[in-house]
Amino acid sequence: MKSDICTLSQDTASLEAILNEVEKAASYNNLDKKQSLRLRLLAEELVGMVPALLEFGSGEFWVESEEKNFSLHTRIMPNTSMTVEKREKVLAVSTSGKNAAAVGVMNKIRLAAEFMMIDYAQVAPSISPEFEFYAMGATTAPVLPISAWSLSEYKAKTEQRKGGAWDELEKSIIANIADDVVVGVQGKQVEIIVKKQM
């Protein structure tokens, strides 16, 4: 089943629509209270990330479910082609001029989506600390016909290294609840898919 598609903007009403669609999907699929709460927590994590991505364009959200397999889809359609220069202008709004928000798993997922909007091979040398996490999650994904960034791939490689990145994953709601988060590009659109089997 596919839910209604919500058009996203930075206003509160469109972000609340994400939570409403998730609650409807949970009810329609007869999820118990605990399962519904897990699905809502994943949606809340997305709600926290979406406004920063909407700086680059418009978005859509929907839920797909098949039996107890759920995927939360967020698609961002950039208004114009994203370039390194445009990304730097967005970051320049920060007092430090750096992407200080790229701490935490959800912000790293958002950053992976930003990389997908630009030529990340061109960007990599200038942002090597940010790019390292991206490279650790780079993969091919069966749900998207191109290369993608996968949270489960990132987790597997981070677990081998342990350290600060592993601690960050252990504290993350999405890393502990979602089965995977995949970020990829289809055409000029970036799609973030959060997967959870109940």
Question: What do these coordinates show?
Answer:
The protein is of the alpha+beta class. Helix content is 49%, strand content 23%. The chain is built from nine helices and seven strands, in the order E-H-H-E-E-H-H-H-H-E-E-H-H-H-E-E. A seven-stranded antiparallel β-sheet has the order 1-2-3-7-6-5-4. Strand 6 and strand 7 form a beta hairpin. Helix 1 packs antiparallel against helix 2, helix 2 packs across helix 4 and helix 6 crosses helix 7. It is globular and about 40 Å long. About 6% of the residues have low confidence.
What structural category do the secondary elements indicate? Answer: alpha+beta
Helix content: 40-55%
For the biggest sheet, the summary is: 7 strands, antiparallel
- Intertermini distance: 15 Å
Query: What shape does the CA trace take?
Result: globular
**How much of the polypeptide forms β-strand, as a percent range?**
15-25%
Based on CA atoms alone, the radius of gyration comes out at 16 Å
Helical run tally: 9
Strand arrangement, largest sheet? Answer: 1-2-3-7-6-5-4
Mean pLDDT: 75
Q: Got a strand count? A: 7
The sequence of SSEs as H and E is EHHEEHHHHEEHHHEE
Low-confidence stretches: 90-101
How do the strands and helices of this protein lay out in sequence?
Blueprint: E1 6-8, H1 12-28, H2 33-53, E2 57-66, E3 69-78, H3 84-92, H4 105-117, H5 120-123, H6 128-137, E4 138-140, E5 147-150, H7 151-161, H8 164-171, H9 173-177, E6 180-186, E7 189-197
Antiparallel strand pairs: 1-2, 2-3, 3-7, 4-5, 5-6, 6-7
Helix pairs in contact: 1-2, 2-4, 6-7
